[in-house]
Amino acid sequence: ETLNKTVQYAQKADQLGFNRFWLAEHHNMPGIICSATSILVGHIAGKTERIRVGSGGIMLPNHSTLVVAEQFGTLESLYPGRIDLGLGRAPGSDSITSQALNSDMRRADNFPNEVSELQKLLGPYNSNSRIRAIPGEDTNVPIWLLGSSLFSAQLAAEKGLPYVFAGHFAPRFLHDAVALYKQNFKPSSVLSHPYFMLALPLVA
User: Fold this and answer.
1) How far lies 180's CA from each of 128, 159, 166, in Å?
2) Sequence-distant (≥ 6) Cβ neighbours of residue 64 within 8 angstroms
3) d(Cα 42, Cα 46) in Å, to the nearest integer?
4) Is residue 75 helix, strand or coil?
5) pLDDT of 94 over the 70 cut
6) Parallel, antiparallel, or unpaired for β 163-166 and 83-88?
7) Of 140, 144, 42, 38, nearest in space to 85 by CA
């Protein structure tokens, strides 16, 4: 029932002209049903017409970068110009579930390098690379960095990537995160200027 209503929700957002419909990876939580995030992104993209569908986000320490690139490269190939890849470094669950997903509890420390790997896997063909994401290569799926602390704000600024702050988790860090991101932003092939999005809970 929840999955069917989520599709209806996305379809209404599409009809109303909203730009994006994102789904967040969470695990072992009875109230949240998007643990298999990429599958749900594809399902909703197939049931809508215009709206961009993406992850807000994929918790990268839980996954191989190659698998993420292949999954989102496949989605972009099926629904060109409509897929977003938001990335987070938190586990998206409690510590016990996190260990079940990934036994290396230090994996989050490698987040900056893994973001770089994903950029290469989704970027142009590189004849020197022995690992290729097929599909995925040259799809250039837009990558967003998500965060509720200053870490991802700094990383997004360094890489010249769009940044989303989780205002519903840590509103007290909002102004510091925005200032840090804007002040330290370095233009890239993706963005010439900072692009910031704020996540907020809303009851209408």
Assistant:
1) 35, 13, 15
2) none
3) 6
4) helix
5) no
6) unpaired
7) 144
With CA atoms as reference, report the closest residue to 29 among 79, 75, 91, 116: 91
- On the question of a cis peptide bond just before residue 57, with omega within 30 degrees of 0, the verdict is yes
Q: For residues 60 and 131, what is the distance between their CA atoms, to the nearest angstrom?
A: 18
Confidence (pTM): 0.92
Q: CA-to-CA distance for 112 and 122, rounded, in angstroms?
A: 16
Helices (H), 48-110: 65-78, 95-101
> How buried is 204 (Cβ within 10 angstroms: 0-12 exposed, 13-18 middle, 19+ buried)?
exposed
Greatest CA span in the chain, whole angstroms? 52
pLDDT at 93 over 70: no
What are residue 58's DSSP bridge partners? 87
Question: In the prediction, which pLDDT does 54 show?
Answer: 97
| pLDDT band with cut points at 50, 70 and 90 for residue 91 | low
| Token pair recorded at residue 192 | 């010439």
> pLDDT tens digits, residue range 153-187?
999 999 999 999 998 888 899 999 999 999 999 99
pLDDT digits (tens, 9 = 90+) for 13-48: 999 999 999 999 988 888 888 889 999 999 999 999
